[in-house]
Design goal:
The protein is α/β, with parallel strands linked by helices and about 400 residues long. The protein is built from 17 helices and eleven strands. The chain is about 40% helix and about 15% strand. The strands form three sheets. Strands 5-4-7-6-8-9 form a six-stranded mixed sheet. Strands 1-3-2 form a three-stranded antiparallel sheet. Strands 10-11 form a two-stranded antiparallel sheet. α1 crosses α4.
């Protein structure tokens, strides 16, 4: 026997699995071809009703008192012991509106349908891709939705503006707002302009200019600093660093800015700071291929993932202070890595690095442990750094 609450849960699952297809169907010429939905209420057999008479009476009572969308079909059952009984047989839902009314999604559904129709009326090519963004259509407040429409309209009229985001002359434009929706705009703009590429180059598709990728580095050798008018702490666009005529013997790559700032002067050395997973840029800098590159990151799954990624571009990259001895020497300073890297294997790690990575992933030494590089005793770090540069 299905009660109204059971039907509601069933329809919630149906909506979750099908709402995107329904959205598209709701504005097509053959909109609701799969309708009506017929949902059996599961009439019990007489023996079941006799065994559980209170349940049977409650079931009938709830459906008699039910008020909602759709049509309830009743049937008569002639039972030998219970006589003729009128029982609910099935529920007929003739529209998607009936379904969303049942599960309390009417407002979101109506908003999504109206906005979908509005956008497709203006850009018919969005018919295929917009259902993917049901939540955008259903949940954006009016200000955000109008901003989305205004930006799409402006990009359509100015496909090659070569402006920075903040230069777009659309009221209320906000860099963070737009940049946090890069995938959305990449796909919508690509569809509007008929670009079938699967790449998602937001700036290319939208004709906008990205901010220059800035890299921060410190020149640790006084002689090398002479080439930079004595400057030691430099932040510059990647494009400008590519042309530098500089060949240090050692380049240290560290994640934490304060760790990089703590480096003392060292012969023929540079430290690059704060790239994170952006280490791929290192492969674009030609003079790095002529030097000894050494990575020092956190002892956690992400630290090893960054090291592995860096070796994709600089195969000879070494690691320091990311070993088991360093980890346990600083055991009292361990903290939790809230979200581990999802990779099961990192093929470019050495055997020793792989052992530490797999032990961290498997929680051999504790639950999601990590040692942040800035917590490492500086005397220990200094000794390791000096050994590298002196030998």
């Amino acid at each position: 026997m299905k009660y109204p609450d059971d039907i509601r849960e069933l329809l919630k699952r149906k909506f979750k699995n099908n709402h995107k297809e329904w959205l598209k169907a709701s504005v097509s010429g053959f909109a609701e071809s799969e309708l009506p939905f017929e949902i059996n209420i599961d009439i019990p057999k007489e023996q079941d009703a006799l065994r559980q008479p209170e349940n049977a009476r409650l079931w009938i009572s709830e459906w008699k008192n039910w008020r909602g969308s759709g049509s309830l079909v009743w049937s008569e059952r002639r039972w030998r012991s219970l006589g003729t009984q009128t029982v609910p047989r099935k529920l007929l839902l003739t529209s998607y509106d009936d379904v969303v009314s049942w599960i309390g999604e009417t407002a979101r559904w109506t908003r999504a349908v109206d906005r979908f129709k509005s956008l497709v009326q203006r850009w018919s090519v969005l018919n295929e891709i917009l259902p993917k963004y049901f939540n955008v259509l259903a949940d954006y407040d009016e200000t955000d939705f109008l901003r989305l429409c205004d930006i799409l309209s402006w990009i359509e009229k100015n496909p090659n503006s070569n402006l920075y985001i903040r230069q777009i002359p659309v009221a209320g434009i906000d860099s963070k707002w737009l940049e946090s929706r890069k995938n959305l705009f990449s796909e919508l703009v690509a569809a509007i302009f008929g670009n079938n590429s699967k790449a998602s180059d937001f700036y290319k598709y939208c004709g906008l200019k990205p901010l220059p990728q800035l890299i921060r580095m410190r020149i640790l050798d006084s002689n090398l600093r002479k080439s930079f008018a004595g400057l030691g702490d430099i932040t510059a666009p990647l494009e400008e660093l590519l042309t530098l005529e500089i060949t240090p013997s050692y380049v240290f790559i560290v994640e934490n800015i304060q760790t990089g700032l703590a480096f003392e002067d060292m012969t023929d050395s540079i430290v690059i700071m704060g790239l994170g997973y952006g280490v791929d840029v290192l492969g674009k800098i030609p003079w790095l291929r002529k030097t000894r590159c050494i990575y020092w990151g956190d002892i956690d799954t992400h630290g090893f993932a960054i090291l592995n990624q860096g070796r994709t571009y600089l195969p000879g990259m070494e690691s320091i202070l990311m070993d088991e001895f360093t980890l346990f020497y600083h055991q009292r300073l361990w903290v939790e890595e809230k979200d581990q890297n999802t990779s099961a294997e990192l093929p470019l790690l050495t055997d020793a690095e792989q052992k530490v990575f797999q032990s961290l992933k498997s929680n051999v030494w504790g639950q999601n442990i990590r040692l942040e590089q800035e917590r490492i005793c500086w005397d220990v770090a200094r000794e390791v750094l000096q050994r590298i540069v002196v030998k």
